[in-house]
Amino acid sequence: MRKYIVVLATTALASTALLAVGVPSAEAASKLQITKVKYDSDGSDAPVTNKKLNDEWVRITNTDDRTRTLTHWTLRDASNHVYTFPTFTLDAGERVWVHTGSGTDTAHHLYQNRGYYVWNNTSDTAKLRNTSGTGGDTCSWTTSDDSPYYC
Question: Is the pTM of this model over 0.90?
């Protein structure tokens, strides 16, 4: 019986210690949320232009009260087109738009530098994942949803 109590007490202390040093939790990751997706750019899809590609985007909002780092996080669709964030931080309460086409990255606009559309107009899923490939947020839509779509 004593061995069981010692093991239980040791496990409880270890768990408390992990929480005290700030191990990232799913809740912390969820502070970065996909809040809006424009999956269908204005006008016809053809011909493909950089202007139309940049009219297709995913908006990510930092709902936390502190700056969050997205460096090496990923944004992907259901077909596994993957965008990896460059060195990037998002201030508390701020938003960033991740555009499909090419452009110059700024504090509020990032560019995937693709030559064709990523987000399907019929249905798709945007997945934001941390550097471990977990956490983050997900937003899905279908043809019955308007573009831009609020997640």
Answer: no
35, burial (CB in 10 Å: exposed 0-12, middle 13-18, buried 19+): middle
Q: Distance between the two ends of the chain, CA-based, in angstroms?
A: 52
**H-helix segments, 21-133:** 26-29, 50-54
Mean pLDDT of all residues belonging to the chain: 85
Cα distance between residue 143 and residue 70, in whole Å: 30
Domains of the chain: 25-150 (2.60.40.1260)
Q: Given the DSSP bridges, would you call strands 82-84 and 74-76 parallel, antiparallel or unpaired?
A: antiparallel
Which residue do the tokens 């009260």 mark?
Answer: 65
Cα 92 to Cα 38, 43, 65, 66, distances in angstroms: 23, 34, 5, 5
